[in-house]
Specification:
single chain, alpha/beta, Rossmann fold, 5 strands, 17% strand
Length: 144
């Protein structure tokens, strides 16, 4: 199966940086387009009135952090690599899956800490969730 559009899920974790490098290298090697999706989680944008932070201020801070992350990851790309950025608001898993469909990606690249068993269950399983629900192949890149 040829890969022409590779979508890379980006967050601020070390495993996401590792996955970004792998996805960008693969896109460059295949002559494919690459895109990053960094989801701005609405649950984190409620603000904190006690600390003097309003909802709009919290949203602006999240947006700025998302744009900064995408700038850092884009700097890892080879010169001339076609690169698209997505910064949707919402639930991370749902927005990644929506971006896979809307762009439409041939391959989704996600990072993982490689945890499994009870610890993996307790920490959630974003990579596993995306593997089960994505309508394209998913490349899971372990941190180790």
């Amino acid at each position: 199966m040829p890969y022409h559009k590779i979508l890379i899920y980006a967050d601020a974790s070390p495993q996401a940086y590792h996955a970004a490098r792998a996805g960008l290298d693969l896109a460059a090697a295949l002559g494919a387009e690459a895109a990053f999706v960094c989801v701005l989680d609405e649950a984190l944008a409620i603000g904190n009135i006690d600390a003097g932070q309003t909802h709009p201020e919290a949203e602006a801070l999240l947006l700025a952090r998302g744009e900064e992350l995408l700038d850092q990851l884009a700097a890892l790309a080879s010169p001339g690599l076609p690169l698209t950025r997505f910064l949707p608001w919402g639930s991370p898993a749902e927005q990644v899956l929506a971006t896979v469909e809307a762009w439409p990606a041939d391959l989704l690249v996600v990072g993982t800490q490689g945890r499994h068993g009870l610890l993996g269950l307790l920490l959630g399983g974003a990579a596993e969730h995306l593997m089960e629900r994505a309508h394209c192949p998913v490349l899971v890149v372990p941190l180790r």
